[in-house]
């Protein structure tokens, strides 16, 4: 049995996976993992605001502005 991969769900932030994964979309098509600052660590968007979903792009750090009253 393979050792379990650490997966950390950060509050209002990314889902951090440490280790190689086989990432697929809802139809089973592979999704390539772009290189990042920390090789071997994958950050999936957990806030739903990333423009690079399924990956985190740091947008979760920006404040959520209330809708304008135009
Ligand atoms: S968790 Fe980082 S942009 Fe969504």
What is the fold's blueprint, element by element?
Layout (H helix, E strand, L loop, with lengths): L6 E3 L5 E4 L22 E4 L26
Antiparallel strand pairs: 1-2, 2-3
The chain binds FE2/S2 (inorganic) cluster.
The site of FE2/S2 (inorganic) cluster has 12 residues, from loops.
Sheet bearing the most strands, described? Answer: 3 strands, antiparallel
In one word, what is the shape?
elongated
Question: Which whole number gives the mean pLDDT?
Answer: 91
Number of helices: 0
Bound molecules: FE2/S2 (inorganic) cluster
Structural class: mainly beta
Strand order of the largest sheet: 1-2-3
Kindly list the characteristics that best describe this protein.
about 70 residues; mainly beta; three-stranded antiparallel beta sheet; about 15% strand; elongated; binds FE2/S2 (inorganic) cluster
